[in-house]
Specification:
Shape: globular
Strand order of the largest sheet: 1-2-3-4-5-8-9-10
Number of strands: 10
Order of helices and strands: HEHEHHEHEHEEEHEHEHEHHH
Radius of gyration: 18 Å
Largest sheet: 8 strands, parallel, barrel
Distance between the termini: 14 Å
Helix content: 40-55%
Bound molecules: 1,3-dihydroxyacetonephosphate
Length: 288
């Protein structure tokens, strides 16, 4: 059964670890992530961007697939199905489609409008027992058409949004979607510490752009209130590298190596290995 992310993140915040949000793209991605979470006895959040939702034939298809897979695979760890960087309209669609958690990314609106829309969606989510993530400041780079300049969040604005009854807060602290450039300045821990000071010790903070952040920075971010870390690109890169290796070794030409179940297997195993590595780093193993 799908659950809201509120409870798992409260526990993570109190226990000083983070729950991974891994973005899904198709059936193989979903299966690999769910099986790894179950094997490691870890809670997990499946992230769905609006673009990926469209690719998978709409949010209702995604919700039905994930719910059925949890049932058929016998997954018993807590799983949240979460809209990633949702628009106002996308959030409403996912609320109706059976998602258990929503991110409304109003960071590109003036703060008053972000407050107004976040407040309305928090009420809509909570009536149905869904969790809500909001964003202040912006995550740099591009993810599925959502482009951010990467400015650090204003801690006072974080407080305004955190007070609206949301369950988790994403705040820009110099993090970027996709690969980090060689000249990346790193995470701004001063900003993160100031945000934690403003919003208090109970609000789970969300670190987007989890791909390629060094382990020491991840640990420090968790110590300053990060309880959810999003990873997308790293699973894509792992899938791509393993698939390339299979094809370049000519394995698709041997016997029935062209069978999609064989062709997609190395990539699926590579996703599992990446998710395992992240869950171990984030400290969510055996926290289900
Ligand atoms: P990466 O693609 O950099 O891992 O970021 C994922 C993310 O933040 C999803 O919202």
């Amino acid at each position: 059964m799908l659950v809201s992310a509120a409870e798992m993140l409260k526990k993570a915040r109190a226990g000083k670890y983070a729950v991974g949000q891994f973005n899904i793209n198709n059936l193989e991605w979903t299966k690999s992530i769910l099986l790894t979470a179950q094997e490691l006895n870890s809670p997990v959040i499946l992230g769905v961007s609006e673009g990926a939702g469209k690719y998978m034939c709409g949010f209702k298809t995604v919700a039905a697939m994930v719910s059925a897979m949890i049932d058929e695979l016998g997954i018993t760890v807590p799983v949240a199905l979460h809209l990633d960087h949702g628009s106002y309209e996308g959030a409403k669609k996912c609320i109706n489609a059976g998602f258990s958690s929503i991110m409304f990314d109003g960071s590109h609106y003036p703060i008053e409008e972000n407050v107004e829309k976040t407040k309305e969606l928090a009420a809509a989510c909570h009536v149905l027992g869904l969790s809500l993530e909001a964003e202040v400041g912006s995550i740099g780079g591009e993810e599925d058409g959502v482009v951010g300049a990467g400015e650090c969040a204003d801690p006072k604005e974080c407080k305004m949004i955190a007070d609206l009854g949301i369950d988790m807060l994403a705040a820009g602290i110099g993090n970027i979607h996709g690969k980090y450039p060689a000249n990346w300045a790193g995470l701004s821990f001063d900003t993160l510490a100031a945000i934690e000071q403003e919003v208090g010790e109970e609000m789970p903070l969300v670190l987007h752009g989890g791909t390629g952040i060094p382990a020491d920075m991840i640990k420090k971010a968790i110590s300053l209130g990060v309880a959810k870390i999003n990873v997308n690109t790293e699973c894509q890169l792992a899938f791509q590298a393993a698939t390339r290796e299979y094809v370049e070794a000519g394995k698709d030409l041997e016997g029935k190596g062209f069978d999609p179940r064989k062709l997609l297997a190395p990539g699926s195993e590579a996703i599992k290995a990446t998710v395992k590595e992240k869950m171990e780093l984030f400290g969510s193993v055996n926290k289900a």
